[in-house]
Design a protein that fits this description.
This protein is an alpha/beta fold and 370 residues long. The protein folds into two domains: 236 residues, HUPs (Rossmann fold, 3-Layer(aba) Sandwich), CATH 3.40.50.620; 96 residues, Tyrosyl-Transfer RNA Synthetase, CATH 1.10.240. Helix content is 51%, strand content 9%. The longest helix is centred in the last third of the chain and has 26 residues. It binds tryptophan. Tryptophan binds next to β3, α9 and β6. The site of tryptophan has 14 residues, from β3, α9 and β6.
Length: 370
């Protein structure tokens, strides 16, 4: 069972894929005109029904992308992984539905709504803009405040209410384990998040892609079941939402990068000193106990957090990352050297990012008040 609100790490991706019918992404890669780095490098590893979206991309047919984040705590590199994908699809012409899951965070993380709103705007939205999100064709909204247009807003909340009838308590228990009212509420809100772009108030039936971390799969399965039942009941027609799944960015100490532990992540606010300290002190190393042993046996890049950060985000050049891999694995490159490269890359990236963020502040209003 996957707990979307837990801090559990996922070890065996293959097993999960088999068990829940997630297809490998790799076979599609050769058909994608300009695949994202995260696709090429296998970080986006699985999908459900991406073929439909691929067809839209190839034939320049319209499609939408829908996803969301809980605004709990610092915005960190793990979040940026998802935001990069949003921006990629916006670049391909997709209309974007981007949800601030404040009701979910209110219930599951026990944070006040005002605080959540502030974090969502000043931390999350600003970083989205700095990473390249554009206001055009982007529905940025809060679960607690869908739209100023009451017809749109009503239809979103109506769908949350109506979804309850399309699932039983036992099914929810089988998906989520022990239930609470907060979990049920959050799950049904997410169902509406994913399906509401297809309501007539939002333009009707369409292809929707939902990129998520693998921890969100329980919600995806629930949503697909509910969509199917609305279809079969002839009540609301939905095209089955497509999904891609990405791996988590590794936490510095292993596990996943998580807002609940500052030493597990690098935040967009971290100073160069903090970055250095976090990488030097906390980033789990695939190096050996001594220089001598390292030179003899070589390091293990696969489990080295610095290497993984470069691979997932900071060294887009395939030849350069391969060289780092080879040098580290052969023992030619030491852990200290690998960490220096990582520190320099991240520091430079965040320095530029901070400048972009200053400029982003002027654009906030363009995303709000929709
Ligand atoms: N549950 C997601 C999280 O924990 C946030 C979320 C809410 C979401 N609605 C969504 C994600 C719709 C994808 C699609 O971060």
């Amino acid at each position: 069972m996957i707990d979307p609100w837990g801090s559990g790490e996922i070890k065996d991706y293959e097993k999960i894929m088999k068990e829940f019918g997630i297809k490998p992404f790799k076979p599609l890669l050769k058909n994608i005109p300009d695949p994202h780095l995260l696709m090429r490098r296998g970080i986006i590893f699985g999908h459900r029904g991406f073929e439909k979206i691929l067809e839209c991309i190839k034939t320049k047919k319209e499609f939408c992308m829908m996803t969301g984040l809980m605004p709990s705590g610092d915005f960190h590199l793990g979040h940026a992984l998802l935001v990069q994908q949003i921006i990629y699809y916006q670049g391909l012409g997709a209309r974007i539905f981007l949800c601030v899951a404040d009701i979910e965070a209110y219930n599951m993380r026990r944070i006040g709504l005002e605080k959540l709103r502030e974090t969502a705007i000043e931390e999350y939205l600003v970083n989205y803009i700095a990473l390249g999100l554009k206001p055009k064709n982007c529905d940025f909204y809060f679960q607690s405040q869908r739209s100023k247009d009451f017809k749109k807003s009503n239809s979103y909340y109506r769908l949350i209410g109506m979804s309850s009838r399309r699932v039983t308590f036992n099914e929810l228990s089988a998906i989520y384990g022990e239930l609470t009212p907060g979990k049920i509420m959050s799950a049904l809100a997410q169902v509406s998040d994913i399906l509401h772009p297809q309501l007539k108030e939002f333009g009707g039936l369409k292809n929707v892609l939902v990129p998520v971390g693998i921890d969100q799969d329980p919600h995806i399965r629930l949503t697909r079941d509910i969509a199917g039942r609305f279809n079969r009941a002839n009540e609301i027609k939905f095209s089955m939402p497509s999904t891609t799944f990405h791996r988590f960015m590794p936490g510095l100490k292993g596990g996943k990068m998580s807002s609940s532990d500052p030493n597990s992540y690098i935040s967009m606010n971290d100073s160069p000193e903090t970055i250095r300290e976090k990488i030097m002190k906390h980033a789990f190393s695939g190096g050996r106990g001594s220089v001598k042993e390292h030179r003899e046996k070589g390091g293990i890049p696969e489990i080295d957090v610095s290497y993984n950060l470069l691979y997932m985000m900071f060294e887009p050049d395939d030849k350069k990352i391969q060289k780092i891999y080879d040098d580290y694995k052969s023992g030619k490159m030491l852990t200290g050297e690998l960490k220096e490269i990582t520190i320099e890359k991240i520091t430079k990236f965040l320095e530029k990012h901070r400048e972009r963020r200053e400029k982003a502040k002027d654009k906030i209003e363009m995303f709000l008040n929709q």
